[in-house]
Amino acid sequence: MSVLWTAADAAAATGGVTGEWQASGISIDTRTLRPGDLFVALTDVRDGHDFVAAALEKGAAAALVSRVPEGCDPGRLLLVPEVLPALEALGRAGRARTGARVLAITGSVGKTSTKDMAVAALQELPTGPAGVHAAEASLNNHWGVPLTLARMPRDTSYAVLEIGMNHPGEIEPLARMARPHVALITTVAAAHLEAFASIDEIAVEKAAIFRGLEPAGIAVLPEGLAVTPILREGAANAEVRSFGHRGDNRLIAAEARAGQTEVQAQIGGRPITFSLASVGEHFALNAVGVLAALDALGVDPLQAAAGLANWRPYAGRGAIEGLAGVTLLDDSYNSNPASLSAGLAMLARLPGARRIAILGDMLELGPDEIAMHAAMAGDPAMASVDLVHACGPRMRALLDALPPAKRGIWAEDAAELRARAGDLARTGDIVLIKGSKSSRVASVVDALRQARQSPPSHEQG
């Protein structure tokens, strides 16, 4: 097992005091900790110091702490004044010691799927999977980014990082920590409007990722948005490349076939064709953004495109599965107006006896949230939807705005809708499930599986 951090290197990076040990990984959760990991005692919902003894018993090499938990061997502790700043320092040191080419991704929609596309493309290069390091799942916040950097092996060839935000001022410090050679914005849309006065303000915050670029770094941004000029202004000190439906990096065509999308694109003026294992023009457009970013990173886009066929959407992010006669489009991880519109467009592209949308509330939309829910009744793809079931007080506004023939079951919450899973679909239907994470509409996915008496066809975590 290779050594990720020695005690001496970790102490030098953090300024901490410790004994002698070597760590092969880093963990913040005793449930997934592996022997040899350095356990980081973060304080979030629970105080990580309460789990240090258990981590050491499970084989952790050491623990990063700000106090000595009772009964723990001080020689197996890396003692620092504060744990989160020490993790940040470890992340900066991990970034500084590698020669990896770094791509950082942000955006209102599609960060994780775009990050995973980039990883799939890079893993087809001669360096292979071992040369590619990336954020696990959606580790994109104030502790997820430094954790990802601290986990990066010294000999990494390419790193792909995801940077998210909920409030103003969050992106720039994470981008400066990541020091990307290329930064990509997927799109800017109505999300987290409780913390921002307008989409323009969201664009300013997203463009802050460009302030972390390395010298001679390249900004890749979406063309054709109302806020594209704001993004360009934010990238004024970098070389700018764009992607969209026109220009040197553009989507020419995206045709859905048997649950896949056949894509024709142009990257850097070169024609490229590739396949994606899901449907939806938004996936195809994000793939064009990935190829534009990898081209900027110095990767041959033709070679990278071959790896895109290996990408699979995570469960909850557009994965398609069969449930004993029903086709499930599981896009239940999160929702906002832009991603719901994309989800409805995916549903409209797929064949079925009936197209059914099961929708939970979209959250963090600010004072106009009810009007924004009702406005989704006018989405162009809604014309192809036969029936809408919904849960939550906000989604009631959408249901009321639909023609009576499209109105299905409405429930106060996901638990009530879950209890009626057997009434939501019948054989031959294709079903989209989508809602914000806190709406808990994802629980309806499992209820529908159980109602159809079929296990999921595949699991991706």
Any overview of this molecule?
This protein has 461 residues and is α/β, with parallel strands linked by helices. It folds into three domains: 5-81, 3-Layer(aba) Sandwich (Udp-n-acetylmuramoylalanyl-d-glutamate--2,6- Diaminopimelate Ligase, Chain: A, domain 1), CATH 3.40.1390; 98-310, 3-Layer(aba) Sandwich (UDP-N-acetylmuramoyl-L-alanine:D-glutamate ligase); 319-451, Mur ligase, C-terminal domain (Protein-Tyrosine Phosphatase, Chain A), CATH 3.90.190.20. Helix content is 30%, strand content 22%. The chain has helices spanning 7-14, 52-57, 83-96, 111-122, 144-150, 171-178, 199-207, 228-234, 281-297, 301-307, 337-349, 369-375, 393-401, 414-418, 442-451, and strands at 5-6, 22-23, 25-27, 37-40, 62-65, 77-79, 101-106, 132-134, 158-162, 182-185, 218-222, 239-243, 250-257, 260-267, 270-276, 319-323, 326-330, 355-360, 387-391, 407-411, 430-434. The strands form five sheets. The chain has a six-stranded parallel beta sheet, sandwiched between helices. Strands 16-17-21-18-19-20 form a six-stranded mixed beta sheet, with helices on both faces. Strands 3-4-5-6 form a four-stranded parallel beta sheet. Helix 4 (111-122) packs across helix 9 (281-297). The chain is globular. It catalyses: D-alanyl-D-alanine + UDP-N-acetyl-alpha-D-muramoyl-L-alanyl-gamma-D-glutamyl-meso-2,6-diaminopimelate + ATP = UDP-N-acetyl-alpha-D-muramoyl-L-alanyl-gamma-D-glutamyl-meso-2,6-diaminopimeloyl-D-alanyl-D-alanine + ADP + phosphate + H(+). It is found in: Cytoplasm. Pfam families: Mur_ligase, Mur_ligase_C, Mur_ligase_M. Residues 24-67 form the Mur ligase N-terminal catalytic domain.
